[in-house]
Predict the structure.
Amino acid sequence: MAELSTIARPYAEALFSAAGKDAAGLDAWSGLLSKLARLTELDDVRAALADPRLSDEQRFDVFTSLLQETLSPTARNFIELLIANDRVLALPSIAEQFEALKNRQAGTALAEIASAFPIDDAQVRELVAGLEKKFGLKLNPVVTVDDSLIGGVRVKVGDQVLDTSVRAQLTRMRDTLAA
């Protein structure tokens, strides 16, 4: 089976193109996709969407009833298409790729920062300022704490990773000594 990101890419690109022409705008679509993706990550929802006893129409009704909001005709068509093609469980990947397209158009990128210890807002701003110079992009930081790093930080921007953690340094030393 094809990798999920490969399956999700054409859907994200088509939706991004349609959303760019929609009066609601990219931010509204981004929010909707985020909600849809969170729904598909729930075990009960995944089970209902995979239930072979339900028709596509029943899956659509169950799924959209959980949103508790009125959908535009374009959004309804998009969800119906995903359900008909058995791709609704790809929504988290579609949402992620949609955000990447949106960020690329805006000249921004998501910076996933993992730190061994909690870092305050001033430290985040300082780190992001240096990273923005390096990448030449406006960065939107998302900071998490990962105590397995032992010390330091690991930053992921797109497909690039800067790992200055103690764990990475120990791994490099081990590899050097073993060679």
